[in-house]
Design goal:
- The protein is of the alpha+beta class and about 250 residues long.
- It folds into two domains: about 80 residues, no CATH class; about 140 residues, Glutaredoxin.
- Helices cover about 20% and strands about 30% of the residues.
- Strands 7-14-13-10-11-12 form a six-stranded mixed sheet. A four-stranded antiparallel sheet has the order 3-2-4-5, with no helix packed on it.
- About 25% of the residues are buried.
- The C terminus is likely disordered.
Length: about 250
C-alpha cells in the first residue's frame, strides 16, 4: 500500500501529474495504468500488484517550471504486504522574470469597449493572459484544467484573461466556460491580432505560435511564465507562482 502520512495536508496528488508507479519489464519500467489525473484519494487502501520490481516517481513543479522528482524502488514478493511512502520534494527554485508585458496592449469587450490588461488586473497580484482557439483540443484541455483548479485559482488572487479573435469565437468560449469556472475570468477580443503580435515581440517569438499561448505576469508587468499549446499540469504551475515574493503588489 502507499503511505500518505508524508503528504502535505490539503494536497491530493494526481496520478501522472504528481506520481506514477512503474513495473520493471525486460529492463524497462512500464507505467501502470490507473487513469490520467486520478486523485490519490481515489486509490484503494491496498493495491494488488504482481510479484516483481517497481518504482514510484513523485514530482512537484516549482514556480519557474523546474520539476523536483523523487524515485523510490521497491520489491513485491508473493504473499507479502509492504508499505511504500509517497514522498514529495518541496520546490525551492526562485521565480525569474522572462520579459516585460507591453504597456500599450489593447483588448476589447464584446460591446466594443476598450479594456487594458492593467485595468483588468486592478486589485490583483497577477494576470494569466491566454490566447485561445475555441473548439480546438488544446484549448478545450486548458479550459477543463482551469475549471478543475477553480478553488486554487480563486485563492491565487490573479485575473484570468481569455483572448479570442472576434465576437463569434468569444461567444463560443463563453459557452465553453459556463458553469464551474473561476469568477475572476474575463473574455476579451484581440482586434487584428495586435495584442498577440505585441506579446510575441516582447518574448522574441517569431512565426506561427501554437495555441493556446499563455502568459502570466505580475502587477508590475513582469512576465513570469509562458506556455504554448496545452501542457499537463499547467494550471497547477500557474497557481503555484507566488507573485508577492517578487514584490508584485505593495
Amino acid at each position: 500500500m502507499l503511505d500518505k502520512s508524508r503528504i502535505a495536508k490539503g494536497f491530493d496528488p494526481a496520478y501522472i501529474i504528481h506520481f506514477t508507479i512503474g513495473k520493471l519489464v525486460d529492463g524497462v519500467y512500464k507505467t501502470l495504468d490507473y487513469g490520467d489525473e486520478t486523485k490519490f484519494s481515489s486509490f484503494p487502501g491496498k493495491m494488488e500488484l504482481e510479484v516483481g520490481s517497481y518504482r514510484v516517481i513523485t514530482g512537484m513543479r516549482g514556480s519557474n517550471g523546474t520539476v523536483y522528482a523523487k524515485l523510490t524502488h521497491f520489491e513485491v514478493a508473493k504473499g507479502k504486504t509492504i508499505t511504500v511512502p509517497l514522498e514529495f520534494r518541496e520546490p525551492t527554485a526562485q521565480q525569474t522574470v522572462i520579459a516585460t508585458l507591453p504597456a500599450d496592449i489593447k483588448l476589447f469587450r464584446e460591446s466594443g469597449a476598450e479594456a487594458t490588461i492593467t485595468q483588468l488586473m486592478l486589485g490583483k497580484d497577477a494576470a494569466m493572459v491566454a490566447f485561445m482557439e475555441p473548439g480546438k483540443e488544446p484549448t478545450k484541455h486548458l479550459v477543463e484544467s482551469i475549471r478543475a483548479a477553480k478553488a486554487q485559482f480563486e485563492k491565487w488572487n490573479g485575473s484570468i484573461i481569455l483572448v479570442m479573435t472576434n465576437n463569434q469565437t468569444l461567444k463560443a468560449m463563453a459557452k465553453d466556460i459556463s458553469g464551474g469556472f473561476p469568477a475572476s475570468c474575463s473574455l476579451l477580443i484581440d482586434k487584428d491580432g495586435q495584442a498577440l503580435a505585441s506579446i510575441k515581440a516582447a518574448l522574441k517569438m517569431a512565426g506561427r505560435v501554437e495555441m493556446p499561448l499563455v502568459v502570466v505576469a505580475n502587477a508590475k508587468g513582469e512576465i513570469l511564465l509562458t506556455s504554448t499549446g496545452y501542457k499537463i499540469g499547467l494550471s497547477e504551475h500557474i497557481v503555484n507562482i507566488d507573485c508577492k515574493k517578487l514584490s508584485c503588489s505593495q
